[in-house]
Here is the input.
Amino acid sequence: MDVQGLQMTQNHPSPGVFKRNPPIVGEAEAIEAAKNGDAQAFSKLYALHKRRVYTLTLRMLGNVSEAEDMTQEAFLHLFRKIGSFRGESAFSTWLHRLTVNLVLMHLRKKGLNLVSLEETINPSEEDAPKRDFGSRDLHLTGSVDRVALERAVASLPPGYRMVFVLHDVEGFEHNEIATMLGCSTGNSKSQLHKARLKLRELLRNPEQSTEPTGINEVAV
Amino acid sequence: MSNKEFPDFDTMTPADFEKYLPDFFANGDGHVSTDPRLQTFLSNNPDCAALVRDLEAIAEHAKSLFEPAEPSEAVWSNIQHKLRQQGSEDEDFPIPQTV
Here is the structure.
């Protein structure tokens, strides 16, 4: 699995990621020990980062089973490749990028061709946000219910969810998302906007927020 | 804002606004509602202003979405199992113990 080929750089990490990922006590020692094959150090790194990695995969995939599978893959990949971590960015940032790239590869394997984002992740007409921005009576401003929003995000079409999570939740910039997904920054902006419009629609009509949208439901 | 050419802020139509809204968000630190150039337009177009407020609220609340979750214990068991399999092929490969 060639994660390196997916722009897993250690340079220019998102400032937001750094803010949320301060150094962890004992982490540096565990990393060095793990590089030397210390099995206990791997256990410690898993314990330190399992929640962060799992939460990220859950956000991106919206599915517990797939999220656990990708968490497993992320740590297996980490354990095999930790020798290539050079410390040029925070370890958590590096692991975050590694995980994002693994999820994107997973989605590509499942048929979501993120390389040609413009053509492939646009949802079907049914899933697309309605162009009714002039409607009133929104009941949203200042009172977005977190649980309802999480449910709405989980029911977004995968392409919308991916860009929304990467930008609004994870704090990546559009140019970073464009690099990761292999699309234009303009397309990233457009997808984000459509995702927010769709969320607004879902929050106004909660009955539309059903089970997470599976990858196979993406119109291609 | 970016180099992208925007319509005249005082004379643009709601359709123009809708067309350029993704760029307004992308280039205005996510705070379209406080962009001084858009104040006249938004005050004259309450539906557009409501849309902006909603989208800003969604973006703002997104930051606090998803409390950290815990993977099941099976994940770590599977990792150990796979590493043992790999370790049997490569004696130098470390086998992590329980967390």
Observations:
- Residues 1-20, 114-124, 134-138, 213-220 of chain A have pLDDT under 50 and may be disordered.
